């Protein structure tokens, strides 16, 4: 992927991420968010490299802050600002945690907020299938599961439904996310046994 000269490369982002993250499941979550954010950027004609970086790095501080939600995303945004990431990427990372009460201003901010729990919902959908393969589920399956309160409890439905803030229906949003994650299923470890 070509990046504008002022935007850190994906390779640099992965190196930075490796300094702060030791959890493979969390890393996979961030890869999934990167893929979905890239698909959304393509849909909206936005800066795909930037959106992908926001998705990839949004939980960079989670190993440090998982027990302190009031610090989560603030620490991560500070890490990214210090590393020279663009202000809009830093801000999107900062506001993806709504505990801070900061407004989501840009389409990228709003997309990242909704994408974060969507990836968990999709992974949960794959894992309840005996094959454990995300490529074997579809949007209708996930829409049905979305309505079940006991399914993927950690995937906040109100946050996923915030896709309306970027003018996408829940069905279209889930479909975009699912297709993006299916495309990298082996890398995410949800490509069956």
TrEMBL record:
InterPro entries membership: HD/PDEase_dom (IPR003607), HD_domain (IPR006674), HDIG_dom (IPR006675)
HD/PDEase domain ranges (all copies): 22-130
Membrane-crossing residue ranges in chain numbering: none
Protein name in UniProt: Hdig domain protein, putative
